[in-house]
Automatic annotation (TrEMBL):
<dbReference type="InterPro" id="IPR036291">
    <property type="entry name" value="NAD(P)-bd_dom_sf"/>
</dbReference>
<dbReference type="Pfam" id="PF02423">
    <property type="entry name" value="OCD_Mu_crystall"/>
</dbReference>
<dbReference type="InterPro" id="IPR003462">
    <property type="entry name" value="ODC_Mu_crystall"/>
</dbReference>
<dbReference type="InterPro" id="IPR023401">
    <property type="entry name" value="ODC_N"/>
</dbReference>
<protein>
    <submittedName>
        <fullName>Alanine dehydrogenase</fullName>
    </submittedName>
</protein>
Length: 352
């Protein structure tokens, strides 16, 4: 006799995710993700788990900018995680929606039934901030104090948050094509105790120990910063190159830097690395999480983390969210999958 509970799906509602952050705090969630993601990337770097395939998807139609992507990861014994995510740089202007919008599901590998489903907007933002924090811990000088922000939208908040938990930041230099976004970042990231200054790209490059770029630049319109004088130990997290043809950094700067990617195959088609030849691209972040001593060799020179975001990161992030929800007792189990008593008769609705 089939157990109905086996086919129930845990739904983490918007309210449940909000309660997780209220109860355990944003610092706890981000710290958990940094450490769990670092461990998971280390496992990948040691060949202890499979990598994700590159994401696939569709360009939005009718001349609209943006993409809708599908990002799957299968871990034997754990199940399949599938995230659907939409990138629409005009979302806020058109409908007051986040630029990145989506959901994520965990699928049981034995039955194929959905085990859980939840929001992917906050999950993606936090895991992206965690990934940049990990790369910065590996490549940036531990004494880094000044962070440069190029693109002060939603991603900037979690990027700063992750860095603030690993570095003693005292100054944030901000540049954005929108003066409103640049000015409001201080209020949105008010939980970080530091000085915020709006500056030009040249000033930002001249003084920053760590920079992250998180823009909605139009494909083909980059770079968003010039290749000018900077501190010799500068580390850059480039997270906005998430479409074919969309890049944020000058190719001359990339060629002077050690470029570490998150997902080599994906980064060559839609990351900063699409500007480079294969031999100009360094080892992936997973390698350095498994062998951190090799990253320290690059600390005193220019480094770039080419972050495109991949599904293994999402699988780990969903694990963290589900575990926190379970510990607190959040989420609602619902029946989504139709599984009739007579499995040969799809019109058998008696089990409903």
């Amino acid at each position: 006799m089939r157990l109905v509970a086996e086919l129930e799906t845990l739904v983490l509602r918007q309210e449940d995710v909000r309660r997780i952050f209220e109860i355990v705090g944003r610092d706890h969630v981000m710290t958990c993700l940094i450490e769990r993601l670092s461990d998971g990337l280390g496992e990948l770097g040691r060949g202890e788990c499979p990598n994700s395939p590159p994401r696939a998807g569709f360009t939005r139609g009718a001349g609209a900018r943006g993409v809708i992507d599908v990002m799957p990861h299968y871990l034997p014994g754990s199940g399949l995680t599938v995230k659907t995510i939409s990138y629409n740089p005009n979302g806020r202007r058109e409908a007051n929606l986040p630029t990145v919008l989506g959901s994520i599901a965990r699928i049981d590998e034995a039955s194929g039934a959905p085990i859980a489903i939840c929001d992917a907007v906050l999950l993606t933002a936090v895991r992206t901030g965690a990934a940049s924090a990990i790369a910065s811990r590996l490549f940036a000088l531990p004494k880094s104090r000044t962070v440069g922000v190029v693109g002060a939208g939603a991603q900037a908040v979690t990027q700063l948050h992750g860095l603030s938990l690993l570095f003693d930041i005292d100054t944030v230099l901000v540049h954005d094509v929108s003066p409103v976004n640049a000015k409001s970042l201080k209020q949105r990231a008010s939980f970080i105790d530091c000085e915020f200054k709006t500056v030009s790209p040249h000033e930002l490059l001249a003084s920053s120990d760590i920079i992250f770029t998180a823009t909605s630049v139009v494909p083909g319109a980059g770079p968003v910063i010039p290749d000018v004088e900077h501190l010799p130990h500068l580390h850059i997290n480039s997270i906005g190159a998430d479409e074919v043809g969309k890049t944020e950094l000058p190719v001359s700067m990339l060629r002077r830097a050690y470029v570490c990617v998150d997902h080599p195959e994906q980064a060559r088609t839609e990351g900063e690395s699409q500007q480079l030849e294969p031999e100009e691209i360094g080892l992936p972040l997973s390698y350095f999480c498994a062998h951190p001593e090799d990253a320290s060799k690059h600390m005193n020179s220019l480094t770039v983390f080419d972050s495109t975001g991949f599904a293994w990161e999402d699988h780990i992030a969903m694990d963290v969210f589900l575990e926190l929800a379970r510990d607190i007792g959040l989420g609602e189990k619902v029946s989504i999958v139709h599984c009739p008593e007579d499995v040969h008769n799809p019109y058998d609705l008696s089990s409903w």
